[in-house]
Amino acid sequence: RVRASMAKTSKHCSELGAAQSVWCEHMINRDLLSEWNAYKKGRAERCHWTETRDFELFYAVTSEDQYYNLSTKPGHPLYDITISSWISSIRGDLYPLDQYEPRSPLTKDHDKVKQECSFAAPRGEWHVSRVGPFRHRDVGSWHYAWFQPFVDLAEAQLPGSIGRYQVATMTSLANTDGEVVGFPPAHMHHFHVWNVNPLIPIWPHVVFNGFETHGDDMCDHEGLGSVCYMKVWPPGYGTPTPPRYFFEALANFVAPSLDEDFYFEISVLLSDDPETKTTLPFVPHAPDLFSKVPQQAGTYEVPKTGESMTWGVSEAEFDLEVLWWKFHTHYYYTSEAWALEGDATAALGLGEAPFELYIEPFEQSDWQTHDTPKTADVFDTATDFIEARMPIPGANVPYKQRYLDLGTVDMDHESAKELLLQRIKAHNDRFDPNGAGDCPHCIKFVWKLDDVMDFHDEVSGKKWTHRPFTPPTKTVYKQGDKLTIVVFHKRIPELCGDTCEESKQPPRLHFLIDTITMPLDPVVGFMTSTTGTYLTYYLTYHPTLVLFVVLLVVAALVATCAGLCARGKCVPVRGPCAVDGPDGPTYHKLVPDEAPDLAYPLTYPLDEESKEMPSDASRRRRVTQ
Predict the structure, then answer these.
(1) In angstroms, rounded to a whole number, what is the distance separating the alpha carbons of residues 43 and 598?
(2) 270, HSE (Cβ side, Cα atoms, 13 Å)
(3) 381, 459, 505, 583: which sits with the fewest CB atoms below 10 Å from its CB?
(4) What gap in Å lies between CA 54 and CA 60, rounded to an integer?
């Protein structure tokens, strides 16, 4: 069955573009399995663990309702988790928050151990960090953990991180022997290894793209399954190694499980191959909302009953080629999603009746009140807070609610999609009435994600998510190119069952397309290269040294010019020392030592029309006249 699944995946990969096909095999198929087997073998044979007990950790085990408590009181396990304490813990000393008295929920008062090891691999060196052991695998238990991995790893500190690239990553729950706890029984709600890197100039300096795991990351359950929690860049590609990692993860058990210890694990393969091309993220998404507490994770809420939708527009920040992609949403309430080329909101009538969003702004009264100083005393609006403190600027909008309940406008998904498709056709017919196809102003589908049950597998009588095969129709973007995201939400009974009705929590949703790209802009490419990163490092941390080098270069140029003048190699163009010549702009040429006697003067006029140096032929004519 595994071979059959991988053969199906190989067929899918072969239908992609040349570059994307290679990425497909490395991310979800044969080359991924090869790297996985090499990793497991190297770890078993060459991993010599070091242990640390004196390290900072936050860990809490809660129920779903405890986890999503938005108004915690002293004594609640998540009371010290505020938006600001979360951001401050991620950033550390590289990005301290202004007007904030740091209060970290991290503590050394625990009985856990952090184990780390490194071992050589053909492409570089694997580094593994794990914290545990933990128990309590009860169905319905939510396990929330924070810690900083690789604190003493020179390759993950400045300047040692420069010139090194992440070429494979892995995050998961694992048992004592390092075997991954799959889905089911453990749902990887979110495993984020935050990369804090002040040397990346064109993307927010705090991201986790490419070093994360979510509940919909699994491959086919009859195929590679949880092996796809590992992400592998093809040879020649990588993402810059940051000088600070921070791990923040939530796992919840959704099915009966073995009663054995488990660990939170992080692995990264670092390479110093100088030929590595830098990859960067581009994440088209439906707008995430501003969260009162970190547990909301920027999600937007939709009604429990009925059918709803939302939309937004994303923009490419630089010229890029999409090399790989994966979707992230919560499918138990997502039935379909579109990604349309360009800003299609006006053509579709999004924002006008009947497609008008219900929006509820985030007010000052919604802030948590136990930060010091209080957030409301520092910021007037949520927009100000987002711009000043959020880890990923622009990822969130300052609202508590933002959706369209289609029932309020006497519509459902089918009638809404029918109207939108009619408007797309009418728009395209205006620009391409003959259907020629070469229509830069037409609205085209880049991705269309539907038939969600096609990528869910039955395990023990229930349906579980794996990654869909949905290729894009466009992979190259110019800076400023846009994508319109439209998402349709309703309860999917086969995935939700009765649990959604029993839960006290509203459905909380994301929809994003997490892509790995190669920058095509030469400036962006240089600034994210090893040379560009070193330049940024010295400009940021050692500007005096850079100024000294610049002064040395200027002094050398001045000395060179002075030496040429002293040897008669420089002839002034203007001023009292200028050689006499015809009126008007002139061009001067140095006299070679070996040819002091020239048949024409040193100074000769420029062409009156072009103001350029005359050709040799015209110069000869001037001399013979």
Answers:
(1) 76
(2) 22
(3) 583
(4) 18
